[in-house]
Amino acid sequence: MDNALEIKGLCKQYEGFALENVSFTLPRGAVMGFIGENGAGKTTTIKSILNLIRRDAGAIRVLGLDNIKDERAVKERIGVVLEDGCFLNTLNARQVDTLMGKAYQNWHPEQFFGFMKRFGIDERKKIKDYSKGMRMKLSIAAALSHSAELLIMDEPTSGLDPVVRDEVLDLFYDFMQDEGHAILLSSHITSDLDKIADYITFIHGGSIVLSEPRDELLDTYGVLHCTADQLAALDPAAVRAKRVGAFGCEALVQRGGVPENWAVEPVNIEQIMLFLTRGENDR
Ligand code: ATP
Asked: How confident is the model at residue 244 (pLDDT cuts 50, 70, 90)?
């Protein structure tokens, strides 16, 4: 089956910031967590995929189509949720339904209003009177109600309480029951990604630091607490990043490169992100 998303050599220059040669691939049937610190380039990458900004170089294929040449067909087949909301605050859900019906050939009002009912959202209430969670649920409901095959979402769970986040993750699970579907999801909430992501792509300072299946990542790496002498004795290729303190060292290591009798603790996505962002990097 073809890939849901292929980004090759994407470059975009702003004053004081550059996306540099960003490349990664999201297969169908998979959820990719797109992580990185504030200002790392996640939104710039997502806006490039959606052709909302003009890229300087590179190629992007979405569901096998060119994201610029085939923009209309691409937009029909993707569901988009952006950080700052997708609809005017003065609209209510009924007006969103009318607008979306005009924008999408495959708009399904019954599905959309089914979501509104499930979320307990009054169809006549204006978006400006929604809570943050309701606004996000409306955006997700709209993205899910036009037979999209790929969801592209910028921080869909940020600012939501754990209960609403869980409801939203359930929607994503339901969406992924079709093996032709895929999700690209930028997030700071790494615990959500621990639950749902099959792939992790990590961007730092405009460049991709890693893009790998989550399970492989967690199997390959671990955290080693050791002395400076022990760290110095290790093969440098096994040490991905380290923090050296007055009382010892902590390193993100490849398990295979560390002697078997040394205790290497399991690592989670948040620790990997912190090591690669704040630790000393040997590569
Ligand atoms: P966050 O997690 O805070 O949303 P992000 O990873 O999504 O961050 P981007 O929004 O992609 O980061 O921003 C990356 C960099 O590009 C930032 O330094 C930002 O100031 C810069 N930038 C974004 N848009 C513009 C623009 N239109 N003009 C100039 N610089 C911009």
From this structure: confident
79 CB near ligand 1 (under 6 Å): no
Tell me the CA–centroid distance for residue 36 and ligand 1, in Å.
Answer: 12
User: In angstroms, rounded to a whole number, what is the distance separating the alpha carbons of residues 6 and 2?
Assistant: 10
- Residue pair 99/138 in contact by the 8 Å Cβ criterion: no
62, 90, 174, 225, 235 from 257: Cα distances, Å = 38, 58, 39, 15, 7
CA distance 207 to 241: 17
Residues in the chain: 283
pLDDT in tens, 2-61: 899 999 999 999 999 999 999 999 999 999 999 999 999 999 999 999 999 999 999 999
| Average pLDDT, integer, range 193-202 | 93
Which residue has a Cα nearest atom 29 of ligand 1? 14
Please tell me the chain's helix, strand, coil percentages from 3-state DSSP, rounded to the nearest 5.
Answer: 35, 30, 35
Please calculate the CA angle 208-39-27 and round it to the nearest 5 degrees. 35
3-class DSSP assignment, residue 47: helix
What is the token pair recorded at 134? 């309701």
- Work out whether strand 239-245 and strand 78-81 pair parallel, antiparallel, or are unpaired: unpaired
In order of their start, the domains of the chain are 5-212 (3.40.50.300), 217-278 (no CATH)
**Mutation pick for ligand 1 pocket among 12, 44, 203 (CB with most ligand atoms within 8 Å):** 44
What are the tens digits of pLDDT across the range 146-164?
Answer: 999 999 999 988 878 888 8
